[in-house]
Amino acid sequence: MEKVVILGTGPAGLTAAIYLARANMNPVIIEGDQPGGQLTLTTEVENFPGFTDGIMGPELMDNMRKQAERFGAVFKRGWVTEADFSKKPFRMKADGIGEIEAESVILSTGASAKLLNIPGEKDNIGKGVSTCATCDGFFFRGKKVLIIGGGDSAMEEANFLTKFADNVTIVHRRDELRASKIMQDRARENQKISWKLNRTPVEVLSESDKVTGLKVLNNETGEEEVLETDGIFVAIGHRPNTGFLGSQIDLDESGYITVKPGTTETNIKGVFACGDVQDKRYRQAITAAGTGCMAALDAERYLEGDAILDWSETLNQGQ
């Protein structure tokens, strides 16, 4: 039986592994189908502290992994399909590994950006196709970009991108937006934003590993047209990777894990959550790493028999 098992190897999971390994907690980290998380799909990362000239996403994650291994963290490649948190020890089944028993578990399985699943999209991620304006907007200074989506996230990212791009075009498959009125108004008032509504994306076009355009279907005329662009930002939402948990862990209406405020504790003692799987607001590498540190410290206290008090008890003590 393991002391602590960490599910996921993004910035949150790897930071938790570093802290726990240094504390001699012998963490075991289960890698999913995308070791390193979403940062392995990005190119240069310029907003992670400590790298004055930036660092490539895959290199940053590889460095974190090596740092955790240096202190004794053990990595196993597998995909957890079932989890039983109803009693101790906790039990999980993972393809490629078998059954795992643990005294505590840290859930850092992240959230996957929803994609359009059209030709040329996945092939050009990191080459002009992005799912994070905050991460990659800087690289499109003075360029022409497209935002695909009609919700609040798309409006917010479109406004953000106007700080860098000369022109931002919002592409949406319907003639009406899902975004709130205030977010729509902000986007429509921005003179750098133009619109291509009632268009369904069909194919991402590229030349020499560089995005050149987006082929769309005009839903009114039935004709195809090509929108020339330097970059395409897909903003149709994220999907937290929580499907294997069933109904054991409390989730919000969007499927994200809910934690007690100020901690990484879930509704089950000994099970903690960090990173994007419990964060639908920020979704940044640095915030994920921060909660990974919190989860490690919470798990360490729990394993040492000094579990954090219930939130209500903490409030009562502060009164």
UniProtKB/TrEMBL annotation:
* Start and end residues of each FAD/NAD(P)-binding domain: 3-292
Keyword hit for Flavoprotein: yes
Sorted alphabetically, the Gene Ontology BP terms of this entry are:
removal of superoxide radicals
GO cellular component terms, alphabetically, are:
cytoplasm
What sort of enzyme, by top EC class, is this?
oxidoreductase
- Catalysed reaction per UniProt? [thioredoxin]-dithiol + NADP(+) = [thioredoxin]-disulfide + NADPH + H(+)
- Return the InterPro entries for the record: FAD/NAD-bd_sf, FAD/NAD-binding_dom, Ferredoxin-NADP_redctase_2, Pyr_nucl-diS_OxRdtase_2_AS, Thioredox_Rdtase
Cofactor(s) the record lists = FAD
Give the enzyme's EC designation.
1.8.1.9
* Gene3D superfamilies, sorted: FAD/NAD(P)-binding domain
Q: Which Pfam families does this entry report, sorted A to Z? A: Pyr_redox_2 (PF07992)
Q: Which UniProt keywords apply?
A: Disulfide bond, FAD, Flavoprotein, NADP, Oxidoreductase, Redox-active center
Does this entry carry the keyword ATP-binding? no
**Cofactor note from UniProt?**
Binds 1 FAD per subunit.
GO MF entry, a single one: thioredoxin-disulfide reductase (NADPH) activity
NCBIfam families, A to Z? TRX_reduct
The UniProt similarity line reads: Belongs to the class-II pyridine nucleotide-disulfide oxidoreductase family.
How is the subunit organization of this protein annotated in UniProt?
Answer: Homodimer.
Q: Tell me what this protein is called.
A: Thioredoxin reductase
Q: Which organism is it from?
A: Bacillus infantis NRRL B-14911
